[in-house]
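Colleagues,

For the teaching module next term, I've prepared a clean inverse folding example: a structure given as tokens, and then the sequence designed for it. I'd like students to try predicting residues themselves before seeing the answer, so please don't circulate the second half yet.
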């Protein structure tokens, strides 16, 4: 597996293994993690089922955070969306940027979503709820590949209300309730300076 990764990265396998690895960008510039494919992702692919398209909203949100891609992140929300973290609410996309995205997206992060359950409102087929589990790893900017760097791993439950946007066909989050269940590591990493 290592040889495949180094070949993809354009490198060669070192003769001795070192516990320190150089960051591999796989074609993305170090300063910006925005994807060159964002524009293509902002349309609902015809091959997605309704349930997959609903799940795609949460995937766009967390991938937007991990890649610091505001356009992708914003595509996952309605303008008046609410983000609720353990009862602390941010109302409207501008407040969500201020209170969450602008800081967390600058960190070295990866979010993993699993156990998604989707229920579509049978009355209109345009609204839905989604629940999921999430693991998120957080490092200070540029420190994700440093051995021994301080980190924060979180386990959360997500409950989302979503609506299908008739303008672009994308499902968008109207309410995102995040219940932080446990943390392991340094909480100061996610606190704005």
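(Answer key — instructors only)
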């Amino acid at each position: 597996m290592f040889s495949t990764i180094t070949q993809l990265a354009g490198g060669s396998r070192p003769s001795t293994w070192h516990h320190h690895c150089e960051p591999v960008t796989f074609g993305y510039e170090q300063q910006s993690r925005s994807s060159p494919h964002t524009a293509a992702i902002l349309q609902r692919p015809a091959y997605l089922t309704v349930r997959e398209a609903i799940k795609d909203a949460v995937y766009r949100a967390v991938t937007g955070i991990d890649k610091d891609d505001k356009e992708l992140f914003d595509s996952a929300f309605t303008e008046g969306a609410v983000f609720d973290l353990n009862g602390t609410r941010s109302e409207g996309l501008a407040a969500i940027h201020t209170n969450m995205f602008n800081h967390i997206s600058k960190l070295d992060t990866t979010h993993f979503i699993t156990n998604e359950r989707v229920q579509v409102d049978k009355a209109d087929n345009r609204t839905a709820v989604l629940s999921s589990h999430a693991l998120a790893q957080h490092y200070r900017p540029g420190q994700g590949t440093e051995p021994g760097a301080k980190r924060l791993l979180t386990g959360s439950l997500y409950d989302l209300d979503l609506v299908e946007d008739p303008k672009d066909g994308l499902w968008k989050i109207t309410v995102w309730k995040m219940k932080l269940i446990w943390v392991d590591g340094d909480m100061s990493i996610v606190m704005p300076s």
